[in-house]
Amino acid sequence: MEEVFVNKVANSGLITLNLEDYFPDGERKFIDIKDVLFMGMVLKEKDFRDWVKAHDWSVYQDVYVAIGCSADAIVPTWAYMLMATKLSGIAKEVVFGDLPALEAVLWRKSLETIPVEQYRGEKMVIKGCGDLPVTAAAYTEITRLLTPVAKSIMYGEPCSTVPVFKAK
Questions:
Q1: 125: nearest Cα among 26, 51, 19, 32
Q2: Sign of the C-alpha dihedral computed for residues 46, 48, 50 and 52 taken in this order
Q3: What per-residue confidence (pLDDT) applies to 159?
């Protein structure tokens, strides 16, 4: 008697979504203004404006840029605004914050391009491992997007998943 193997995963109706397919490709840079501060603590307007004027902003051409200050200093909001004006039309994206904040914004923009309505009532598996750095922010964002439409959301691989969400 011949044994018949049934591929339960293939017959499960699970749809696997690989977030690596939505990885926002491109160089990332952080501009830390702490080095521009007087004594690492105080922003002097004239010195800062001189730095902004003299800085080579072209090095950020087509780059994703986060701007912030890693020092415990009070930096006026206009300083970041001034930097943003110089990066406008040069950088692919500019955000206030550090590199993880930049990643969160990039993932959100990328994942919002997914037509999630196509997954209405579906059992979804969000692929859990791979070669590219998919952040926790990306997994959180895709869960936020899919929860209103999916029947269920799981994390991992179709053969070994962790349940995350099940519609009522």
A1: 19
A2: negative
A3: 81
